[in-house]
Predict the 3D structure of the following.
Amino acid sequence: MTDFLYFWNHFAFVILMVSGLFIIITSQNYIKKIVGLAIFQTSVFVFFVSLAKIIDGTAPILNSVNNVYSNPLPHVLILTAIVVGVATSALGLAIVLQIYKNYGSVEENEIKKEELKENS
Amino acid sequence: MNFLIINFFLISILLLTTFYIFKTTSLISIVALTGIFTLVCAAIYVNLDAVDVAFTEAAVGSGISTILMVMAVAKLPEGKKNQLLNLFPSIVLSVSIVIVLMLIIANLPLLGDPNAPIHLHVTPEYIKESKSIFHIPNVVTNILASYRGFDTLGETIVIFTAGLGVIVLLTSNTLNRKTKFKKKVKK
């Protein structure tokens, strides 16, 4: 039972990553695709942060009471990645708005249909 | 032990939220669910001792990202009924990725193992030395701003470029195509 609890984060990482990928591939709405990308990124963040955890450790702020600290290095990497992820989704949303201005739709299958109709 | 049980429940909420994001079609509901998703993530980070990450996730991931999405969705039409294309190839791809990743995570150290390879190298020196060099008790700040300052500089360049791209995309009219379905755009 306890082993299961110890592995739960890794398991959830796999499920979240794959469901993000699944949403990106199958959904036809562009906003939903961007949300899928955000889920994909967040799965990696949770995985990194759970690798950094030490049992009975505290947050890596030095003090005189504790002497076991969780690993600060993955935290730094994830801090950078979170901000870059928001920049990515902002750029994606701007592209979606531009697509809507040009095609009148944000559904991928409709846009493909219109393109085919126009080309023929 | 308490930490493990709290972690289990928070991660389960995360998985449930993902399922509902997949199921929902209304765009504004998807945005609200994304806000919930990132806030639960922030709670998970606090539970896993990553307080700085939780702070950033709550401010940037849950705040700014949700505001940007609401602003975009306000200009878009309501989402259509869930039409899933490419269903068969994506299921094959997902199942194969799950199998490969499950084989890999079976060999990883358990959550919170103090003897995992990740904890044995660079980090002990960071924790031991950084206070005497930079006089700041927060190790994450020391690494972010000093040991890995160039990473942070690169990050600011990335954000600057992304902001530039957003401004160019939102203000340009030269991309507009003169087509018949331009009329359908709501004013």
Q: What stands out?
A: Chain A touches chain B through 89 residues (CB under 8 Å). The CA atoms of residues 9 and 47 of chain A lie 7 Å apart.
